[in-house]
Design a protein that fits this description.
The structure is a single chain. This protein has two domains: about 5-120, no CATH class; about 130-314, Histidine kinase-like ATPase, C-terminal domain (Heat Shock Protein 90). Helices cover about 65% and strands about 15% of the residues. It has helices at about 5-10, 15-40, 50-75, 90-160, 160-180, 190-205, 220, 230-240, 280-290, and strands spanning about 185, 210-215, 225, 250-255, 260-265, 295-300, 305-310, 310-314. It has a five-stranded mixed beta sheet, covered by helices on one side. It has a three-stranded antiparallel beta sheet with strand order 1-3-8. A hairpin with a 3-residue loop joins strand 6 (about 295-300) and strand 7 (about 305-310). The longest helix is centred in the middle third of the chain and has 71 residues, at about 90-160. The chain is rod-shaped, with a radius of gyration of 37 Å.
């Protein structure tokens, strides 16, 4: 017999809806009680769950006793008939209710702890990936600087005025990298400007043998992000792996299509012995694998080399 039925049937002056109201309030009190006990348990280390269970049942019995006493006091019930249900029935039912509430609250608490643990692990993973990306980005600066200084050294021997122009552009380019390397991603418009400066430097170095065509809609430049140095790395990679001359120039195409940045060039491959092991394209592939599920798409054909990378929406 439920406590509602007990109250409504055994006490003629106590209507069913009164009993329902009392039982609902009692249920809420038990819920609040168990939540408070869980909070107190969580603040102590180590937590002793069995103590919380004992306290919960003791307080529940105490509240039921007080409520039954108040009901009798307020409604002035007549003496119970001999065949009336025992007062233990509502207590047993309320204890059963408390058991159900304990089971539910424990299930909620376990789920909450699991979600909290998963969130902490996810945050830790993100911080780890960010640290690894920063390490990869920092590898790019000395790599590029070494190549640039080598170029400058060669130009000084050939044309001092051109070397001076190259140095001016290089200083502006490096000024930008001071702040850019602190970020893992950069606005596409900034990366394009950054790479355009790099292309200008290469045009000075390879006058008449290196050409670049860039066709990216202006509306897209401020709608996407890209890993810092990504586009510049692809341009550098094309220059590094091709033996181009004025007779056989290197032609680079940079375009945008359906959220992807596409960099392609004609192939004039160097002998394998002339290609040094570098960190450029491999570095970029690893950075993309760390920050997204989109891999770098590479198509190495007989007469062309194309790299397709997914831009990151703002």
């Amino acid at each position: 017999m439920s406590p509602i039925s007990f109250l409504a049937s055994s006490q003629t002056s106590f209507k069913f809806w009164h009993a329902l109201l009392v039982f609902t309030l009692l249920s809420l009190v038990i819920w609040v009680l168990n939540i408070l006990l869980i909070s107190i348990e969580g603040s102590k280390k180590p937590a002793k769950t069995w103590k919380r269970y004992i306290i919960s049942y003791m307080l529940t019995i105490m509240f039921v006793t007080i409520i039954m006493w108040l009901i009798n006091l307020l409604f002035h019930f007549p003496e119970k008939p001999k065949d009336a249900p025992s007062v233990l029935y509502p207590i047993i039912n309320v204890l059963a209710l408390n058991t159900i509430i304990l089971i539910l609250s424990n299930a909620i608490m376990i789920r909450s702890k699991k979600e909290h643990t998963e969130t902490e692990l996810a945050n830790f993973k993100i911080k780890h990936l960010e640290a690894e990306q920063q390490q990869l980005i920092q590898q790019m600066q000395p790599h590029f600087l070494f190549n640039s200084l080598s170029t400058l050294k060669s130009l000084i021997k050939i044309d001092t005025e051109l070397a001076e122009e190259y140095l001016v552009k290089l200083s502006g380019f490096l000024r930008f990298t001071v702040s850019a390397h602190e970020n893992t991603t950069i606005l596409l418009a900034d990366e394009i400007q950054f790479t355009s400066d790099y292309i200008d430097l290469q045009k000075i170095r390879f006058s008449g043998s290196f050409f670049c065509q860039m066709s990216i809609p202006e509306t897209c430049k401020n709608e996407y992000k890209i890993p810092v140095y990504a586009l510049q790395t692809l341009v550098e990679n094309a220059i590094k792996h091709n033996a181009f001359t004025e007779a056989r120039p290197l032609i680079l195409n940079i375009s945008f299509q359906d959220g992807f940045l596409i960099v392609s060039n004609n192939k004039i491959p160097k002998p394998m012995a002339a290609i040094r092991n570098g960190v450029g394209l491999k570095n970029l592939e690893k950075r993309y694998s760390l920050m997204s599920n989109n891999a770098v798409d590479i198509k190495d054909l007989a007469d062309s080399f194309t790299v397709k990378i997914k831009l990151l929406k703002l």
